[in-house]
């Protein structure tokens, strides 16, 4: 198992941030190869497709995120996250716990996707989209997770032990707070989880300035993404 | 482990069909409770049966699971369709997600505004021909084995073969240059449990037609 995982993405949160959070929370050091131009992306695609000619079975759909880990070049966010979680024991103790973790993770991803895509929304639709996010957070997602914590009164969502579900949810809570801090008002157990996970040494370190955590993308970051990914 | 899994959805493919395929391929009998009116969905929501107020929902082994991937992963693990170790699981996940990306585009096509439909179809065909099918054909070519991962049937094969059927429904010529994918499709389709599922009268759902689309819109209150 030579070397640190190497993350290929551009210098922004996007679809790679959840992976950065998970690795950081697992206390795993990682490297980043940042894609800075569309030429870099083309070069990466070329390297990846010529790599396909070898026999190791790695597959690419010409997309990033891509993570080099344990001799594999993995694409697809969920494949990467699931592998990391299994490797670092953040995926529960059996298949029933894994089912709960998957269910919670997918709920987080649904709301997270809406938030992530908001900057790409045409200006005339933005307010409607934002209102929908606020409504869904308040009436669907946050209550669902608050109720899980309420039902067992344990420190973590599943099996009384930190799992990827807690890390993904806490990351999401940070984004919800960035969007509108008042959204967290009526969810004391979620606030407790956020504090608890944030105080774990590895997470605390990741939350400090200078870490590999990426800041919210502003207009400039969006423009750069458009140029690189050509959309 | 009392009783058969019970699937809650409307009487159409949608997001439940891949779950039906996987259970069928695993040789698992299942029941279906069809949502036929918006009130049926309301009832499930008010019962607290749906964690995020959404279907698909599957009652299995004492759990009420929602979220398609959570359900699929559980079934795959239970019936040994998820590889032998974490590296195989990573490949299976990677391939499954690729299938899902293309499958999602095809699934949403009926909901596409008429003036955008042709462009969407063209994009699906382009992605199929230039991105997804070549990637899977290469996997099979690289190892020359009968199945995508670990020389053994996994969820990845089942999801991919299901997708190949949908691509074929759309445009059979898209399969032309992918002999190994055609071979996989034939091979998986011949497995007894899959063969049975492919026959008329099974729980497999037909393509969405106007009526089915109207029904879905009505139930899910989509305008």
Describe this structure in words.
Chain A: Keywords: Transferase. Chain A: This is Glutathione S-transferase. Chain A: Belongs to the GST superfamily. Alpha family. Chain A: Residues 94-217 form the GST C-terminal domain. Chain A: Pfam families: GST_C, GST_N. The complex is a heterodimer of chains A (231) and B (223). By secondary structure, chain A is α+β, with helices and mostly antiparallel strands. Chain A contains nine helices and four strands. A four-stranded mixed sheet of chain A has the order 2-1-3-4, sandwiched between helices. In chain A, helix 1 (17-25) runs parallel beside helix 3, helix 4 packs antiparallel against helix 5 and helix 4 (95-117) runs parallel beside helix 6 (164-179). The termini of chain A are far apart. Mean pLDDT of chain A is 90; it is low at 51-59. With 223 residues, chain B is an alpha+beta fold. Chain B has nine helices and four strands, in the order E-H-E-H-E-E-H-H-H-H-H-H-H. Chain B has helices at 17-25, 38-46, 68-78, 86-108, 114-143, 155-170, 179-190, 192-198, 210-219; strands at 6-9, 31-34, 57-60, 63-66. Chain B has a four-stranded mixed sheet with strand order 2-1-3-4, covered by helices on one side. In chain B, helix 1 (17-25) runs parallel beside helix 3, helix 4 runs antiparallel to helix 5 (114-143) and helix 4 (86-108) packs parallel to helix 6. The model of chain B has no long low-confidence stretch (mean pLDDT 96). Chain A binds chain B through residues 52, 54-57, 59-62, 70, 72, 74-80, 82-83, 86-87, 95-96, 98-100, 102-103, 105-107, 110, 140-141, 144, and chain B through 51-53, 61, 63, 65-71, 73-74, 77-78, 86-87, 89-91, 93-98, 101, 131-132, 135-136, 138-139, 142-143, 149.
């Amino acid at each position: 198992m030579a070397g640190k995982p190497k993350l290929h993405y551009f210098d922004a949160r996007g679809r790679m941030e959840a992976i950065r959070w998970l690795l950081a929370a697992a206390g795993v050091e990682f490297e980043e190869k940042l894609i800075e131009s569309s030429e870099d992306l083309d070069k990466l695609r070329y390297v990846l497709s010529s790599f396909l000619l070898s026999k190791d079975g790695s597959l690419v759909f010409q997309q990033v995120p891509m993570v080099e880990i344990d001799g594999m070049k993995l694409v697809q966010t969920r494949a990467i996250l699931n592998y990391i979680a299994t490797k670092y024991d953040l995926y529960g103790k059996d298949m029933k716990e894994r089912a709960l973790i998957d269910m919670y993770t997918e709920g987080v991803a649904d709301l997270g996707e809406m938030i992530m895509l908001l900057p790409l929304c045409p200006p005339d639709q933005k307010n409607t989209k934002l209102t929908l996010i606020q409504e869904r957070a308040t009436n669907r997602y946050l209550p669902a997770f608050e109720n899980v914590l309420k039902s067992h009164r344990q420190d973590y969502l599943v099996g009384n032990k930190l799992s990827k579900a807690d890390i993904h949810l806490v990351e999401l809570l940070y984004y919800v707070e960035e969007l509108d801090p008042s959204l967290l008002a009526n969810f004391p157990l979620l606030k407790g989880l956020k504090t608890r996970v944030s105080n774990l040494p590895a997470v605390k370190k990741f939350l400090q300035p200078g870490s590999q955590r990426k800041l919210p993308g502003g207009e400039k970051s969006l423009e750069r993404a458009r140029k690189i990914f050509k959309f | 482990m009392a009783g058969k899994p019970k699937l809650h959805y409307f009487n159409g493919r949608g997001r439940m069909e891949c779950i039906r395929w996987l259970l069928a391929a695993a040789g698992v009998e299942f029941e279906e409770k069809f949502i036929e009116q918006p009130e049926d969905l309301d009832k499930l929501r008010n019962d607290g049966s749906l964690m995020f107020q959404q279907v698909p929902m599957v009652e299995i082994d004492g759990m009420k699971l929602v979220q398609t991937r959570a359900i699929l992963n559980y079934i795959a693990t239970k019936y040994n369709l998820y590889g032998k170790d974490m590296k195989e699981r990573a490949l299976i996940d990677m391939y499954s997600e690729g299938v899902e990306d293309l499958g999602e585009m095809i699934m949403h096509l009926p909901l596409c505004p008429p003036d955008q439909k042709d462009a969407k179809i063209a994009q699906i065909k382009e992605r199929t021909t230039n991105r997804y099918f070549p990637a899977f054909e290469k996997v099979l070519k690289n190892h020359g084995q009968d199945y995508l991962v670990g020389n053994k049937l996994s969820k990845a094969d089942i999801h991919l073969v299901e997708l190949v059927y949908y691509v074929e429904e759309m445009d059979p010529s898209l399969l032309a240059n992918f002999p190994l994918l055609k071979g996989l499709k034939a091979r998986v389709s011949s497995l007894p449990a899959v063969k049975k599922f492919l026959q008329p009268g099974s729980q497999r759902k037909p393509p969405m037609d106007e009526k089915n689309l109207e029904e879905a819109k009505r139930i899910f209150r989509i305008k």
